[in-house]
């Protein structure tokens, strides 16, 4: 048994916590973008994913994806055997590289959680919570765990087999979730009133807070994916920062040109697009390459958000335009911008051939098609049996109230606000305390 | 007696209140309202989707006054509310048949 390296272990445990924080961050990022009557349901779909996927990971998820780490074997490169199901007796085992196996398993658990949660953004305001949980269980089982094995598992057919490069989750996480999100948006259909009512975000500061937590946690996501604290993790961390910075600027410049104003939601969305795009590439490109990836992702994703209006599908919070498109950009650009010293192979722009570009494109297509088809079938089966959508009247009344018996905000106890003028003066007569209307009567 | 109603920009409320106070107006009623005139709302952009917000927040100020003071009150509201930019609002006058002070039962001008 290899000796456990405390430095690497400390960094991976820290990274696991950072990646976990991304899901509550995602909840706020998504929650702020919904209408106020659906904010809690959005938070609950994310927290629900934390609940069910974490447990599945222990029962059999880790085993299906990575049981070779503890002596299991890959079954045709498609998934691993169940020799690590339940994760019993793994407390002492160190894996190659000096990590306790549970540190690796815990880190990867957070990826399974957030990938599933990402999908929820496409079906804001209209999914039955119970049906969402059932979807999360089946999709994680039939799609996430196998695809993680294809891309990252020892013997996985895409990663080890074909040589698809995905450092931290462009294919396994973002394309996977983005394609599933599109399928769900299509099966569930449009929100009542969409696109006539465009349903603007109810709390942009919440969106920015969530984006900030995602950005923070993403350092664990990307720099932790080296599974060690070393030079490569440093490359991943720096690339993550500069790609994201470039993407923020890319997105808001597009808005500035098209609409005359750089927006807060654009800055937050650009950050996520950049983080997504650099994820697969963060340890295969130089910082200048990372800036190029981020800038391209910021510009292209910004242009893609209006596609849903043109094509007529209601991906409520643009999971497709940000995660799917961002993931495709990062995964494919590895084929152009990889440098040999980091990726063992040069991309096309650094004198390499088209081979890597082709392999990367293949990885994108395979994961996208598999995830889309499976998600569509699972969602369709749920819709036809127990139903996936809430009733239209419940949707109009507000899913927070009808699914969770709660309201996100209570303004009734704060009383009427005096219109946005200067602060009330002592000379003004006080409002009647029992006044419940927004009228203020003096004299 | 007349009811002078002004629908004005929220930021001008303090100036209007001061102007009425200077005239010796004893009381007024203020409510938050929404509406539009020639200003026609504004446009917001969220991820490229443009939203036209038709109804803008305004403040409605109502003063019941003696007929003799109507012109002064209308002038005070209109002048104090004016910024010169679009969306400054409107002031109008309607007749009032009777006023009762609830506390004492006084009626008419005495009740103002």
UniProtKB/TrEMBL annotation, chain B:
This protein's record includes keyword Zinc: no
GO CC term, one of those recorded: cytosol
InterPro entries: N-reg_PII, N-reg_PII-like_a/b, N-reg_PII/ATP_PRibTrfase_C, N-reg_PII_CS, N-reg_PII_urydylation_site
GO biological process, one term: regulation of nitrogen utilization
UniProt-recorded name of the protein: Nitrogen regulatory protein P-II
PANTHER family noted in UniProt: NITROGEN REGULATORY PROTEIN P-II, NITROGEN REGULATORY PROTEIN P-II HOMOLOG
UniProt KW keywords: Nucleotide-binding, Phosphoprotein, Transcription, Transcription regulation
Keyword Methyltransferase assigned: no
Residues modified to O-UMP-tyrosine: 51
Record lineage: Bacteria, Bacillati, Actinomycetota, Actinomycetes, Micromonosporales
Signal peptide: none
The organism of origin for this protein: Natronosporangium hydrolyticum
Subunit structure: Homotrimer.
Family: Belongs to the P(II) protein family.
GO MF annotation terms: ATP binding; enzyme regulator activity
């Amino acid at each position: 048994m290899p000796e456990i390296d405390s430095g690497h272990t400390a960094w991976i445990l820290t990274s696991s916590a950072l990646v976990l924080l991304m899901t509550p961050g995602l909840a706020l990022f998504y929650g702020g973008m919904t209408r106020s009557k659906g904010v809690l349901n959005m938070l609950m779909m994310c927290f629900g994913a934390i609940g069910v996927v974490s447990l599945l990971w222990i029962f059999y998820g880790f085993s299906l994806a990575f049981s070779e780490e503890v002596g299991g074997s890959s079954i045709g490169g498609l998934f691993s055997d169940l020799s690590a199901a339940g994760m019993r007796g793994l407390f002492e085992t160190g894996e190659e590289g000096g990590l306790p196996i549970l540190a690796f398993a815990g880190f990867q658990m957070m990826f399974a959680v957030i990938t599933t949660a990402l999908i929820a953004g496409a079906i804001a305001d209209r999914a039955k919570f119970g049906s969402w949980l059932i979807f999360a269980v089946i999709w994680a089982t039939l799609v996430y765990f196998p695809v993680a094995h294809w891309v990252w598992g020892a013997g996985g057919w895409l990663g080890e087999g074909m040589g698809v490069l995905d450092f931290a989750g462009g294919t396994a996480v973002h394309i996977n979730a983005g394609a599933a999100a599109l399928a769900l948006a299509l099966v569930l259909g449009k929100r009542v009133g969409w696109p006539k009512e465009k349903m603007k975000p109810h709390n942009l500061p919440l969106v920015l807070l969530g984006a900030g937590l995602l950005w923070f946690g993403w350092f664990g996501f990307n720099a932790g994916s080296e599974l060690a604290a070393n030079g490569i993790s440093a490359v991943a961390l720096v690339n993550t920062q500069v790609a994201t910075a470039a993407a923020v600027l890319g997105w808001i410049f597009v808005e500035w040109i098209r609409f005359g104003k750089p927006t807060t939601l654009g800055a937050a969305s650009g950050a996520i697009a950049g983080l997504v795009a650099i994820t697969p590439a963060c340890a295969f490109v130089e910082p200048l390459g990372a800036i190029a990836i981020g800038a391209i992702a910021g510009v292209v994703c910004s242009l893609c958000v209006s596609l849903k209006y043109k094509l007529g599908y209601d991906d409520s919070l643009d999971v497709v335009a940000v995660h799917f498109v961002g993931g495709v950009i990062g995964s494919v650009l590895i084929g152009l911008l990889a440098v040999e010293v980091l990726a063992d192979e040069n991309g096309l722009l650094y004198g390499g051939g088209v081979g890597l570009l082709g392999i990367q494109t293949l990885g994108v297509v395979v994961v996208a098609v598999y995830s889309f088809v499976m998600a569509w079938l699972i969602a369709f089966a749920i819709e036809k049996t127990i139903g996936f959508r809430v009733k239209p009247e419940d949707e109009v009344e507000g899913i927070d109230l009808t699914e969770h018996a709660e309201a996100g905000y209570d303004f009734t106890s704060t009383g009427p606000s005096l219109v946005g003028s200067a602060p009330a003066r002592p000379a003004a007569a006080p409002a009647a305390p029992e006044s419940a209307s927004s009228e203020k009567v003096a004299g | 007696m007349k009811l002078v109603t002004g629908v004005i920009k929220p930021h001008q409320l303090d100036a209007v209140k001061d102007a009425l106070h200077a005239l010796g107006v004893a009381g007024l009623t203020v409510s938050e309202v929404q509406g539009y005139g020639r200003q026609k709302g504004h446009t917001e952009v969220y991820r490229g989707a443009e939203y036209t917000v038709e109804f803008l927040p305004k403040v409605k100020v109502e003063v019941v006054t003696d007929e003799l003071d109507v012109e002064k009150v209308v002038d005070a509201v209109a002048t104090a509310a004016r910024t010169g930019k679009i969306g400054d609002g409107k002031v109008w006058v309607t007749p009032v048949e009777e006023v009762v002070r609830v506390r004492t039962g006084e009626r008419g001008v005495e009740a103002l």
